[in-house]
TrEMBL record:
Official protein name in the record: Reductive dehalogenase
Domain of life: Bacteria
UniProt key word Iron: yes
Source taxonomy: Bacteria, Bacillati, Bacillota, Clostridia, Eubacteriales
Cross-referenced SUPFAM superfamilies: 4Fe-4S ferredoxins (SSF54862)
Length: 354
């Protein structure tokens, strides 16, 4: 499988300031993206005046959390202790690290046997690292998921949804920091991949760590929480036991469901078939159509999360059975469609907002 270049990721492109070296380099190589990206930059920034949801008191709840994440991400890497500690066998260390992540708040964990295609080919998010080749060769990745609160997500596309999302990033960053600091204290190398400082594609690592499948909306769908999770990854050279990917029927379910595509305000999610993307069959999301809606709204939308039946605590027995029974999939959808006209929504304001 081909590696993705982080310079092509929309969030990286939005960081390229006109007349900067990275801006000039990127649009020299990709002139077809210049007009599209310039139009996006001309829209109100997320959480700022001019967007539909802007609130002078509530919007900074989200922005301040992202500022915190930005100011700690340099701690993601560090030097390991000079001498290695004698550690237990990989099976026991795997249990220990998974338990540590759960203790600090992770809901799901898995270990991915890291391959080239999990990593970006080049960095692009920050000017200081723009264009650097990603040479990380850690063979293991501890992947973990934190849950995003359902009642906040069901308030999408309002500010509460964005607050739940950024809280997921904060929780994941803290868990990853603790785990990576611990591994380095044992004399092994470790890196925390967190918001704004990933060297890899977390959903692909999570899928290959046996935590779920990639759905129509391009997000990891877990059995337990659907796509209502945020992911963190700590890669390391500490020997661990990797988990195996598994399928529980999501590809077939998403083919039948289409809820996220129907409800997407930006029409960014395809209703048709999957495509071959870098050697992997997945549904192709329009990142520009998605992000344009973000800028209009002033939040990260989240309607696809709220509209996914798996976000809404399906009967676990039915989930376990659906991979072997197409009728179970139809039953899940019938019951969901009878209960909700389009998607579940919480309209009441958050009672602790000012």
């Amino acid at each position: 499988m081909k590696r993705f270049d982080e310079r092509d990721i929309l969030f990286a492109r939005m960081n390229y300031s006109p007349r900067s070296p990275e801006y000039d380099d990127y649009y020299r190589r990709h002139p077809e993206m210049k007009e599209i990206d310039s139009a996006l930059r001309g829209m109100p920034p997320l959480g700022e005046p001019g967007s539909a949801t802007y609130h002078p008191i509530h919007s900074p709840l989200v922005g301040s959390a992202f500022q915190f994440l930005s100011e700690i991400k340099h701690l993601s890497e560090g030097e390991p202790a000079k001498e290695k500690t004698g550690v237990p066998e990989p099976e026991e260390m795997t249990r220990l690290l998974k338990g540590l992540a759960v203790y600090y708040g992770a809901k799901l964990t898995g270990v991915c046997a890291m391959k080239d295609h999990h990593y970006y080919s080049h960095r692009g998010r920050e000017a200081a690292h723009y264009g650097e080749s990603v040479t990380s060769s850690h063979p293991y990745g501890l992947v973990f998921a934190v849950e995003m609160e359902k009642d906040m997500i069901l308030r999408a596309p309002g500010i509460p949804e964005s607050l739940a999302a950024v809280k997921g990033y904060v929780d994941g960053a803290v868990i990853g920091m603790i785990v990576s600091y611990y591994i380095r204290s044992l004399g092994y190398d470790a890196r925390n991949h967190m918001d704004g400082n990933y060297l890899l594609i977390a959903p692909l690592a999570a899928r290959d760590a046996g935590m779920g499948e990639i759905g129509r909306h391009g997000l990891l769908i877990t059995k337990e929480f659907g796509p209502r999770v945020r992911l963190g990854v700590v890669t390391t050279d500490l020997p661990l036991v990797s988990d195996k990917p598994f399928e529980f029927g999501i590809q077939e379910f998403c083919t039948l469901c289409n809820r996220c595509a129907i409800s997407c305000p930006g029409k960014a999610i395809p209703r048709g078939d999957k495509e071959l993307i870098n050697g992997d069959m997945r549904w192709k999301i329009s990142d520009t159509d998605c992000y344009r809606r973000w800028r209009m709204l002033g939040t990260d939308c989240g309607v696809c999360l709220a509209s996914c039946p798996f976000s809404n605590e399906l009967n676990p027995l039915m989930v376990e059975q659906m991979g072997a029974s197409p009728e179970i999939m139809h039953q899940i959808l019938r019951e969901f469609n009878q209960k909700y006209k389009l998607r579940p929504m919480v309209k009441e304001p958050v009672n602790w907002f000012v």
